[in-house]
Amino acid sequence: MQQTPKILYEDNHLLVAVKPAGVLSQSDATGDPDMLTLLKAYLVEKYKKPGEAYLGLLHRLDRPVRGVMVFAKTSKCAGRISEQIRSRKVEKRYRAIVYGTPGEKNGHIKSYLVKNSKTNLVEVFQTREAAPKDAKECSLDYEVFGEGRIAGVPVSLLVVDLHTGRSHQIRSQLASIGHPIVGDRKYGKGPNRFAGDILLESFHLALDHPVTKERMVFEIPLDQEEPWKQFAKQE
User: Are 103 and 76 part of one and the same domain?
Assistant: First the structure.
């Protein structure tokens, strides 16, 4: 039986948990474990609910990505948090280990993305003029927090502030500037074959509580296993 994901916070209105790498955000045709189903089962068992518990999925993380996710326990809170996401009041930050080191220690990437539904891949265009009409404008900021090596290959740890939440945005945009994320099977054409999970995690999430309006911040610490551990003193 799949273990219940780690719970960071829970009250009558919302539930914040850590999605492990490899677990789906919601169910798909594979039938593999997903956060929504696992957390609904947790609520049913904890509160001895008859039938199925309500839990609103507000955002997603790609299957290979570990990170903080927030869920709504009522439909009213789901609407309020979704509005925060639309108005960009929800703050998300990611850690990524990429091949090489970007020339700018503090950089900004703005580009236009088009997702191919058949291949499930995103194409990146650097200018609006070059992009198709249906391309979505996307932007992020990154900061280089440390440099290291994996199997002798130079890598660096980036902290990414995501300003728009498009599918595969971080993965495709970093690859487009020549620094793909280590372990990315879709966009990571790096100089070696890293066999582990993609080295990308959503470590920071901040939002206003849907009822009290208090600003809430949730973070997970840097993984103390390699290859993350080598950056512990640099972050």
Answer: no
Does residue 110 share a domain with residue 38? no
Is 11's pLDDT higher than 90?
yes
Q: What is the pLDDT of residue 1?
A: 54
Structural domain that includes position 72: 1-87
Instruction: Domain count for the chain, please give it.
Output: 2
**Residues in Cβ contact with 93 at an 8 Å cutoff, skipping those fewer than 6 apart:** 159, 160, 161, 162, 202, 203, 204, 205
Residue 128 and residue 34 share a domain: no
pLDDT interval class at 157 (50, 70, 90): very high
pTM, to two decimals: 0.90
Same domain? For 30 and 118 the reply is no
**32 in active site:** no
Instruction: Please identify which of the residues 34, 62, 184, 197 carries the catalytic annotation.
Output: 62
